[in-house]
Amino acid sequence: PKGDSVDTAALVLADVKRQMAFDGPVEIFPLDLLPAEYRVDYQGLSAIAGSHQKIDGVSIIQYDPELMHRPIQFISVVAHELMHARLDGLENMVPGGAGAHELATDLGCIIAGYGIFQLYAADEAGWSGYMSQNSRAFALAVFLNRRGLGQDSVSQFLSGRCNKLLARAFKDV
User: Fold this and answer.
1) Which contacts (CB < 8 Å, 24+ apart) does range 23-28 have?
2) How far apart are CA 152 and CA 108, in angstroms?
3) CA 66 to CA 125: how far, in whole Å?
4) Do the Cβ atoms of 136 and 106 come closer than 8 Å?
5) Eight-class DSSP state of 28
6) Rounded to an integer, what distance in angstroms lies between the CA atom of residue 89 and that of residue 162?
7) Which of 15, 85, 140, 152 is deepest in the core (most CB within 10 A)?
8) Burial class (CB in 10 A: 0-12, 13-18, 19+), 16
9) What pLDDT, in 10s, does the model give residues 119-161?
10) pTM score
């Protein structure tokens, strides 16, 4: 990507870090992937949207540069990967242990206030990530309910399908 995309990614990361109150060192880089028009999918489910690793005490987040064309998905991926940094070292402490780490990461994003991004981005991308869309909608409904907010507070930011999932979830809260 051009320098502007890398600069935009760094600005988004800074905003997400601030909103998550995370002050650890983090660097962000695009993954070295072919542009979308040259990729062959073959209906594969193994595409990598982002990754997190820690090197010498610094969290390194990498992202698919094509996500820069889909801002909701990009923010969702940045939040997810940054949540890995927040949960670093706690992998065995969450219910389910290390095997449930990705699930705990998605749930952590919702708890941190990124539930709208998580729900909408997964719907927009056509996959649900580590949580089912029903589970993600339920977690968002619980999050909103505990803050005294209803579906109307977020409905304008969600697709019709996401709003239907959230409405069903609110009935179970």
Assistant:
1) 24/59, 24/85, 25/57, 25/58, 25/59, 26/58, 26/59, 26/60, 26/61, 26/82, 26/85, 27/58, 27/59, 27/60, 27/61, 28/60, 28/61, 28/62, 28/63, 28/78
2) 23
3) 12
4) yes
5) E
6) 33
7) 140
8) buried
9) 999 998 887 678 899 999 999 999 999 999 999 999 999 999 9
10) 0.86
Half-sphere CA count of 165, side-chain side, radius 13 A: 22
Give whichever of 16-30, 41-55, 81-95 has the largest mean pLDDT: 16-30
Describe the chain by its helix, strand, coil percentages, rounded to 5. Answer: 60, 10, 30
Torsion of the alpha carbons at 153, 130, 74 and 69, rounded to the nearest 10: -100
Cα 1 to Cα 163: distance, rounded to the nearest angstrom: 34
Query: 17 CB contacts (<8 Å, ≥6 apart)?
Result: 23, 26, 82
The token pair at 28 is: 């962000």
